[in-house]
Amino acid sequence: MLGLLMTLVVGVFAQPWNPPIMQCVQPMDGGRIKFIWSCDQNDCLHFKEYCIYVNSTLQHTINASPGETLCGYGDFIISVPNASSYDCYMIAYDSNNNPYPSNTIRSIDLTVTPNVSNTRATLNWSPPTTSFDNTWGTSFDIYKKRGFETSFPTQPFASIPRTAGTSYSYIDTSDVCNDDISYQVGITHSYQNGSPCPFMSSIITVSNLTDDTPPTTPVIDSVSVTSNNKVMIGFHETEPYMRHFIIDTSSAVTGPYYQKTTITGGLTYWIDPSINPSSNTKYYRVRAVDSCNNTSPMTDSLWNMKLSLLSTDVCLKSASFNWSKNDRPIKDIDHYEVNLSDDGGTTWRTIGTTADNSYKIENLNYNQNYTVLVRAANSDRTLTASSNRINFTIPKPNIADFSYIPSVSVIDNQYIQINALTRETPQFESITLQRSEDGIQFEDFKTQSYMTGTETYVFDDKHADFERKTYYYRTFLTNSCKTSSGYSNISHNIVLRGENDPLEQTNLLTWNGYDNWDGDVADYTIMRKLERQGFNTVTYVVPAINNYYLDNISQYYESGAKFTYYIEAKEGPNQYGIQGTSCSNHLTITQPPTLYIPNAFRPFGGNNNNVFKPANLFVSYDQYRFSIFSRTGECLFITTNPHEGWNGRKNNNPHSPVCPENVYVYHIEYQLPDGTIMERSGTVTLLK
Asked: Which CATH architecture is the domain 17-106 placed in?
């Protein structure tokens, strides 16, 4: 007895190292088990061999190679006979072959029992321990692998909360048709530094399970129009492993619905080849059919969104679109996104969003080909659906956009007249004349409405100080779009100025050049009027850049004192096939008068000195009066013509006798350039 006690004491003290600790066991496919253990670094250095036991049978030995340790091992996979559960432990041996047995752990003990119809399987299992602490997971995870799957999914399909109970169960409804389902239950366990170590049950397979429950209704995501104007229905299954889907269609939301097609091959969309979404609406519902031919209820109806072009406005360069507020291409529509493309749909830009069922696109370009579509979206844009596409163009309108001023003339030296040229077509609403005194800031002056059959519009400016100021004019049209267009050239009146030179007997004329003719100024015509004549052409000033002229009027000394001028500008050839003209104000230049009065004459002197007449140079006809009186005060002759003299007879009557030789009194009244009336009196001797 004493010897046995000593042997035990020696054995205890001969084993100073801590044994490995079994952490978890994981049964796997193919009759394999994965073991996970932990061992302190100071202990594993002394171990040369690990012996792994499953259900009290040595299954595997791990030996340290020469010069190496077993510290690199912490898990190992071995093949074992199938069992409903596995008791696992290991024994470590040091260099003296002293054994260090680990703790024993057990896999989760799982049983699976199908019901009579093989449509459900009841899972029962016992936990790997009854004393759970915070190193264990909070739930048991249930995994299943269907016969057509090659491996267990990484995610569990169900979880059962961990409680203090000693047994657990779960009833699974089969989702396969005449196929096997393998089940496995697990719970996580952490060890050492918190690394997870899942405990797993054995894999239990149940054969020939079948499904008699209709699948849940799939979800129809969207009814959208593709780029080639086809309707595409997108949907997704709410549970896996559906055999196919049935697409039902109707021409009305309330039905009736008819089966249109069957979708197989794992596809979750279908393109309807039979509808033109630009002109028609079709209603769609989807059913799922599982592998046992159980059919789900139909989804709610969704249908394509039909976009329509309401109108285009060539004046506002806009296009208006709408769609039915009842259109339901997706569920829970939050807003609509309006998309525009100007390259045939290659690139798109979202130009606006709206919660309404209409939208106006503005600021478009003329003659640009556009494509528009509207996309319905839910609040987070996880679901969207497009309408049909509409191609459209805003044609450039044939609006009046031409006016031209060929003439700004002073008429009869009384007012300025402006002629504006337009085209009769296209029709416009009105033409407006604007006036400016600096050629920069224009104000509306007069407006005339469109007149059928009229291309030239005449405006009179009767409030212009045209002899002193230059006025600038332009016109514009108010077109059929009620916008301003067709701004004309800027034209102005010609202001003629001048001065006399009495010594040289000349008149110098200057004027501001005419501007902004399409054909420029070809020449200026100098027009002159003597006191008792009409206007006549004096000369042409070429080139037109010379805006002055010196008129030698010495030969016209007997034509009066006043010389009246105006300038007429002529336009050169232009693109409109017309020649504009513009006349200046009238300018009168007065030469100062000079009078030479003889003191005697002889009525019978032949052709020499037979008429008493003052030599009048540049004496105006205005206010001129020449009178002859006898010494008794009788008026013998009177005239208002500066170039008429007295022939010695009373009233110049050729049938009256010549007055007696005597001294007679003359009296002359004439006007100076400033309007002053001068008087000269004297005597003249009539000789015989």
From this structure: Sandwich (2.60)
